[in-house]
Design brief:
four-stranded antiparallel sheet; signal; about 350 residues; Neuraminidase; protein homodimerization activity; Paraoxonase; membrane; mainly beta; five-stranded mixed sheet; single chain
Length: about 350
């Protein structure tokens, strides 16, 4: 009798395991394939060979690239090279990506940049906020951009217990920001368990010198974050839930749910077109290919444009799609004056004229 009970419990455990694995495959869109949608005037950006996970463009056309991200469990084409910040002037006829010098005293050898965000102060000072993972830990680095020297002056490193697994950031002041945690835990095994069990413990944190607090929670995997042009709404991409959350910013800086847009892809970083308010999203059509890298069947790329997200029926357009033959693992898409930049988690970057 005892043996039958044990076999019965084992059968239940195997069945539950199978259900969890199937659910994870569905969240990863593991069986999805896409048809390529090409743009006519595109070329790969020279000098970006190992990822440009995030891109932010200033109103004057200077684009910042976060390059060289390395992460446990993710493929890397340059595992022994630290990351950096590149810049490209999109007003030039043939813009080139140049690496920005970083001030002495900053630990360049362990620089591992992830999400980035710029903020322009009232005196026109440009600040660059960078999510950094030195030795796979979590910090926020704040730099001052010195345009004449093509350099970044390091101002501050921020660490906080409420920022255990930071993914992306949106700056709203010289020392103020919202940031996403894609996991509740910082330990790699607990992160995996959290994802496997689909706990929905990821969150958004508000940081200021005077107050740090969780302002939105309940996400499967909170990734990209950005703000509407009128500064009233915060947009959060929930990668494994295939959603973009529209959150209303309150006077106390808390965020309340306004709406959720469901999509058929894993949404990563979000960029906002400043005049139209359109959202451009770098997406992963098949997450399993992203995390289980096979050079013979590489991860694909997808760029979505979302118009009128606050309306009852937003317009969602696939602007670019590729099966991995040109661009693998698109994580961000950002536009400026008819030019489109597409970055990737660990591959190349694409420059297109729309």
């Amino acid at each position: 009798m005892g043996r039958l009970v044990t076999l019965g419990l084992l059968g239940i455990a195997v069945a539950l395991l199978g259900e969890r694995l199937l659910a994870l495959r569905n969240r990863l869109k593991a069986s999805r394939e896409i048809e390529s949608i090409d743009l006519p005037n595109c070329h790969l950006i020279k000098g970006i060979e190992a990822g440009s996970e995030d891109i932010d463009i200033l109103p004057n056309g200077l684009a910042f690239f976060s390059v060289g991200l390395q992460f446990p469990g993710l493929h890397s084409f340059a595992p022994d090279k630290p990351g950096g910040i590149l810049m490209m002037d999109l007003n030039e006829d043939k813009p080139r990506a140049l690496e920005l010098r970083i001030s002495r005293g900053f630990d360049l050898a362990s620089f591992n940049p992830h999400g980035i965000s710029t903020f322009i102060d009232n005196d026109d000072t440009v600040y660059l906020f960078v999510v950094n993972h030195p030795e796979f830990k979590n910090t926020i680095e704040i730099f001052k951009f010195e345009e004449e020297e093509n350099s970044l002056l390091h101002l501050k490193t921020i660490k906080h217990e409420l920022l255990p697994s930071t993914n992306d950031i949106i700056a709203i002041g010289p020392m103020h920001f919202y940031a996403t945690n894609d996991h509740y835990f910082s330990d790699p095994f607990l992160k995996y368990l959290e994802t496997y069990l689909n706990l929905h413990w990821a969150n958004v944190v508000y940081y200021s010198p005077n107050e740090v607090k969780v302002v939105a929670e309940g996400f499967d995997s909170a990734n990209g974050i950005n703000i509407s042009p009128d500064k009233k709404y915060i947009y959060v991409a929930d990668l494994l839930a295939h959603e973009i959350h529209v959150l209303k910013k309150q006077p106390d800086m808390n965020l309340t749910q306004a709406k959720v847009l469901s999509l058929d892809t894993l949404v990563d970083n979000l960029s906002i077109e400043p005049f139209s308010g359109d959202i451009w999203a770098g997406c992963h059509p098949n997450g399993q290919k992203l995390f289980v890298y096979d050079p013979s069947n590489p991860p694909s790329s997808e760029v979505l444009r979302i118009q009128n997200i606050l309306s009852e029926k937003p317009t969602v357009t696939t602007v670019y799609a590729n099966n991995g033959s040109v661009l693998q693992g698109s994580s961000v898409a950002s536009v400026y004056n008819g030019k489109l930049l597409i970055g990737t988690l660990y591959h190349r970057a694409l420059y297109c004229e729309l």
